[in-house]
Amino acid sequence: DTAVSQTPKYLVTQMGNDKSIKCEQNLGHDTMYWYKQDSKKFLKIMFSYNNKELIINETVPNRFSPKSPDKAHLNLHINSLELGDSAVYFCASSPMGSTDTQYFGPGTRLTVL
Amino acid sequence: GENVEQHPSTLSVQEGDSAVIKCTYSDSASNYFPWYKQELGKGPQLIIDIRSNVGEKKDQRIAVTLNKTAKHFSLHITETQPEDSAVYFCAASRRGNDYKLSFGAGTTVTVRA
């Protein structure tokens, strides 16, 4: 059984387009996250949701808008894509908060041309 | 906020030898220190973690030590095998409403056969 799943795995698009990445967890966790991993492998938190409520918004441009329709889903919508948005985006979840184990999805590689 | 520094950035070891990765953190209130392993094309996976009330934890060939006074913690891998080749990340977080897990920059470990 897949614990944290993301779709799509690869996303190639043109500058200026709008795209979405979906994330689902079947672990019954309360908290979900989005991370961005750049070309140097650095992992940086973008957003955190706890029980559908936004907890962290780490100085991410407002072109990025997370949406949590329910506790099991946290989708990421990106407007007006820029070259610098190219990265691997990881969704993760944890039972409660940051002092619990975070389980990561397989990642979505976004390439903006 | 928390700042986690990780060294070295790359590590090459002969199969069977030990590997040690060191991290330092800045926030003395941090109390949870996980280590993640990321294989090529996959999401980070937790391999071991330690909380601030424990000085050392071991799981088979992997061990983590924590020095709260010096604010540093280390990952030790003994009897390395080719499948240990991956990128390893340390992280730190603290209890409370802050759901943020701050990651180190990662260490690329290569085990030479």
**Mean of all residue-level pLDDT scores of chain A:** 91
- Supply the helix-strand structural class of chain A: mainly beta
Give the low-confidence spans of chain B. none
Alpha carbon gap, first and last residue of chain B? 41 Å
Biggest sheet overview of chain B: 6 strands, mixed
Tell me how many strands of chain A there are: 11
Give the beta-strand count of chain B.
Answer: 11
Number of helices of chain A: 0
Morphology of chain B: globular
Helix and strand content put the structural class of chain B at mainly beta
SSE pattern of chain A: EEEEEEEEEEE
Name the chain pair with the biggest interface and residue counts per chain: A-B, 26 and 29 residues
Q: Give the overall form of chain A.
A: globular
Mean pLDDT of chain B: 93
- Name the assembly state: heterodimer
Taking all Cα atoms into account, the compactness measure Rg of chain A is 13 Å
Are there runs of chain A of 5+ residues with pLDDT below 50, and where?
none
Distance between the termini of chain A: 34 Å
Radius of gyration of chain B: 14 Å
Strand content of chain A: over 45%
Discrete helix count of chain B: 0
Would you mind describing this structure in some detail?
The complex is a heterodimer of chains A (about 110) and B (about 110). By secondary structure, chain A is mostly beta strands. Helices cover about 0% and strands about 55% of the residues of chain A. Chain A has strands at about 5, 10-15, 20-25, 30-35, 45-50, 55, 65-70, 75-80, 85-95, 105, 110. In chain A, the strands form two sheets. In chain A, strands 2, 4, 5, 6, 9, 10 and 11 form a seven-stranded mixed β-sheet that branches. In chain A, strands 1-3-8-7 form a four-stranded antiparallel β-sheet, with no helix packed on it. Chain A starts with a strand and ends with a strand. In chain B, strands 2, 4, 5, 9, 10 and 11 form a six-stranded mixed β-sheet that branches. In chain B, a hairpin with a 2-residue loop joins strand 6 and strand 7 (about 60-65). The model of chain B has no long low-confidence stretch (mean pLDDT about 95). Chain B has strands at about 5, 10-15, 20-25, 30-40, 45-50, 55-60, 60-65, 70-75, 85-90, 100-105, 105-110. In chain B, about 0% of the residues lie in helices and about 55% in strands. The radius of gyration of chain B is 14 Å and the shape is globular. Chain B contains no helices and eleven strands. With about 110 residues, chain B is an all-beta fold.
